[in-house]
């Protein structure tokens, strides 16, 4: 009987009691939660990598802090970094599969949305389009980066990180990854906020102003940190060339 209910719900999107299925709403919430976790992690990660602008000692101090040196008597435990990478990887994969529900399923759906975007010329619709494209790219770029860090999580320091940029020939990869990551995360965080945080106002105009202010604030934070991280990447490249 339970299998029959699952079949009915999957085809008709209603339960056997003719009630609307709550699963899509649950999946949307999980997608938003995993997306918010990843967006916050990206902000922290940009601060982490940008510490190289203050010198290699500053970066080493941040690495030690992230490995729990402030808890374990001044000596960090690299295994904590491995654990964090595993958790973020699980969240990353979960978010990717949840987001795929809203991707165009075939070429016809792709063209319908593309035409809709061109006719509407609406900012948020265009932002979703950019999020879709960057999300597709991040599935491969972000996945490759997480795998790389996972297998090197116990040996993170300024010199191994710098050599990865130059000797590993990953400078261009990291620069592209940063741009795509900032675009996707900033749009995603903005969409999560306006979707789940009430923005009621006496008039539609005032509500639109609130949305605009949130958009400006979110993009300002990500762009500022993104620019700093972009400059830091060139510092990593310069350091790698001196090794």
Automatic annotation (TrEMBL):
InterPro entries xref list: Fum_red_B_TM (IPR004224), SQR/QFR_C/D (IPR034804), SuccDH_FuR_B_TM-su (IPR000701)
GO MF annotation: an example: metal ion binding
Transmembrane portions of the chain: 29-56, 76-98, 127-151, 171-193, 214-239
Places the protein is found: Cell inner membrane; Membrane
Acetylation in keyword set: no
Keywords on record: Cell membrane, Electron transport, Heme, Iron, Membrane, Metal-binding, Transmembrane, Transmembrane helix, Transport, Tricarboxylic acid cycle
Ligand binding (heme b): 45, 95, 145, 184
Superkingdom, natural source: Bacteria
First-listed, main subcellular location of the protein, grouped into a coarse class: membrane
Pfam families: Sdh_cyt
GO BP annotations listed: tricarboxylic acid cycle
The name this protein goes by in its record: Fumarate reductase cytochrome b subunit
């Amino acid at each position: 009987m339970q299998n029959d209910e699952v079949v009915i719900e999957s085809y008709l999107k209603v339960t056997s009691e003719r009630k609307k299925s709550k699963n899509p709403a649950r999946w949307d919430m999980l997608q938003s939660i995993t997306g918010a976790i990843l967006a916050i992690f990206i902000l922290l990660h940009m601060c982490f990598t940008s510490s190289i602008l203050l010198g290699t000692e500053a970066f080493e101090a941040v690495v030690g802090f992230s490995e729990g040196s402030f808890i374990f008597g001044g000596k960090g435990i690299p295994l904590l970094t491995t654990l964090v990478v595993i958790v973020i990887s699980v969240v990353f994969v979960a978010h990717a599969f949840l987001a795929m529900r809203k991707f165009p399923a075939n070429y016809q759906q792709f063209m319908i949305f593309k035409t809709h975007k061109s006719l509407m010329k609406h900012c948020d619709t265009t932002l979703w389009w950019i999020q879709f494209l960057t999300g597709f790219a991040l599935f491969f770029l972000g996945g490759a980066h997480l795998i790389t860090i996972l297998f090197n999580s116990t040996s993170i320091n300024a010199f191994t990180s710098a050599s990865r940029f130059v000797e590993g020939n990953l400078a261009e990869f990291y620069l592209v990854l940063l741009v795509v990551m900032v675009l996707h995360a900033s749009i995603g965080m903005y969409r999560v906020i306006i979707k789940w945080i009430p923005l009621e106002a006496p008039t539609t105009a005032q509500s639109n102003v609130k949305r605009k202010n949130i958009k400006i604030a979110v993009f300002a934070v990500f762009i500022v940190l993104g620019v700093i991280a972009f400059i830091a990447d060139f510092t990593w490249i310069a350091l790698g060339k001196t090794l």
